[in-house]
Design goal:
The complex is a heterodimer of chains A (114) and B (115). In chain A, 0% of the residues lie in helices and 50% in strands. Chain A is built from no helices and eleven strands. Chain B is globular and about 45 Å long. Classes of the chains: A mainly beta (114), B mainly beta (115). Chains A and B meet through strand 4, strand 5 and strand 9 of A and strand 6 of B.
Chain lengths: 114, 115
């Protein structure tokens, strides 16, 4: 059972470089989310999607872009990486409408920007 | 806006001790409440949830009761084990229409259980 899969799991970038994190889910979930986790800050929502072809900004969207071209995939892009984007990134999905649904998380992607 | 406040960690206990991790919330609507757990090197996973006032969520010996009058959802376990060592996150999902049911997380509480 794959669930939510994130790639890559680790990446080191230099300031100004670009990269894309891929999230794939095999549960046919409508909603997908990107969070970042920083020490003492908990999880903060970057962007989210409520269905294929839709995206919306979360709490800390600056410096990131996202795309949801296929229902099962949610991509997070950094066009010009900055040291402040050093973090652990988590993708999550949930089944759809209603506030009671469980979030399923990937294992995380650790990004270091030098 | 919505917010979740958890007790500051880290929390260090001996095996078989009683655990309480406090969580209080602020929400504009009538939220659902969750506890998620993150074991070392892993993503978060749902531990328990409650969707209405006075509901009690329970799983793996952990319990939490949705207290609307005190806006709280404290996590408890009667006898912790070394395997419970993890980071615990309290979260809420607001039902208000414009939120698209986003989850708001607390900052997390690191629990270490020593043998």
């Amino acid at each position: 059972n794959a669930g939510v899969t994130q790639t890559p799991k680790f990446r080191v970038l230099k300031t100004g470089q670009s990269m894309t994190l891929l999230c794939a889910q095999d549960m046919n979930h409508e909603y997908m989310y990107w969070y970042r986790q920083d020490p003492g800050m908990g999880l903060r929502l970057i962007h989210y999607s409520v269905g294929e072809g839709t995206t919306a900004k979360g709490e800390v969207p600056d410096g990131y872009n996202v795309s949801r071209l296929k229902k099962q995939n949610f991509l997070l892009g950094l066009e010009s990486a900055a040291p402040s984007q050093t973090s652990v990134y988590f993708c999550a999905s949930r089944v759809g409408l209603g506030p009671t649904g469980e979030l399923f998380f990937g294992e995380g992607s650790r990004l270091t920007v030098l | 806006g919505d917010s979740v406040t958890q007790m500051e960690g880290p929390v260090t206990l001996s095996e078989e001790a009683f655990l309480t991790i406090n969580c209080t919330y602020t929400a504009t609507g009538y939220p659902s409440l969750f506890w998620y757990v993150q074991y070392p090197g892993e993503g978060l996973q749902l531990l328990l949830k409650a969707t209405k006032a006075d509901d009690k969520g329970s799983n793996k010996g952990f319990e939490a009761t949705y207290r609307k009058e005190t806006t709280s959802f404290h996590l408890e376990k009667g006898s912790v084990q070394v395997s419970d060592s993890a980071v615990y996150f309290c979260a809420l999902s607001d039902r208000s229409g414009g939120s698209n049911y986003k989850l708001t997380f607390g900052k997390g509480t690191l629990l270490t259980v020593n043998p």
